[in-house]
Structure prediction request, 307 residues.
Amino acid sequence: MILHRVLLVLHVLPRLLIVSAYPSKLPCNFPAIFNFGDSNSDTGGLSATSLTDPVGWPNGETFFKMPSGRNADGRLLIDFIAEELGLPYVEPYLDALGGNFSHGANFATTLSPILDQNSTLPLGFYSPFSLSVQLSQFLQLKKRSQVLYQQGGTKKYMVPREEFFAEALYTIDIGQNDLTSILFSPNMSPENYLQDALQRLATVIKEIYKTGGRYFWIHNTGPLGCLPYVLVRPPVGSEEMDETGCRIFYNALAEKYNAMLNETVVKLREELPAASLTLVDVYSAKYHLITHASNYGKIHLFYIVTL
Ligand SMILES: *[C@@H]1O[C@H](CO)[C@@H](O)[C@H](O)[C@H]1NC(C)=O
Ligand SMILES: *[C@@H]1O[C@H](CO)[C@@H](O)[C@H](O)[C@H]1NC(C)=O
Ligand SMILES: *[C@@H]1O[C@H](CO)[C@@H](O)[C@H](O)[C@H]1NC(C)=O
Prediction:
């Protein structure tokens, strides 16, 4: 079962990863998580910006019992990763009202692309917090948190300790919004667009590496062609769908991105020999979940699949 395999991988890999790097350390000993991404891992970032209406009910209703800023009624993958590592949920960097970043920060916002877009919210569609902006925010946090830490007081207990940056798990889940932005870039072939996007992604990982980050946990992109917003805007004829009702063109685009991402990660492993880069096949897990939804009890597909 693909899903079980992936969940197993989620449980087992951090252990393998850390064991091979520090044989004497306890498994899963990451003191912090720094996350970069889009709605798939947005724990309240875009909601905090007020660029869109705050994410309201029924979001959060099954787990947090209140709107949590996530585009989900429960927890996201990033929440389960935090739980598994024994860390607090990763708080949105943009939350000006009481964010506690002592064990990491979440730079992801809903609708974030890798590549900067001309048409950002509220004028258009995309979040202005592209991956490059998220990197700048991370660098800013890294620098300023050490000043705050040294100043002491309560702020000291709201920012990561300096050594956490080298020991942290860096999680990345982004790319989905670049797939849709390709359609608004008629002057560029999808191939070239994806190449640019992945080159940027590689640059960001190298920048984090330069600052001392070593453990990278990268999700590939999910089956975009199965998402409701892709199926209804504009409505699709049956000839454009596969046997499970997903849109063929968009899933092919996602698979193309994933194949290129895989190549990018292979290359990064050669270029950054001291780094651990784990590529997680989220596409297969989500595709399985969507096509076998009835095996897993009551699942609201709308909530599995977000922007
Ligand atoms: C976005 O803006 C940049 C810089 O102004 C320009 O080079 C590019 O063609 C624009 N892209 C689109 C899709 O309008
Ligand atoms: C921030 O969270 C950490 C870990 O949960 C906790 O130890 C610390 O006291 C919190 N800081 C403040 C100022 O509440
Ligand atoms: C990446 O490609 C290799 C073969 O080149 C394959 O074995 C592996 O499963 C791929 N990983 C993902 C996450 O698709």
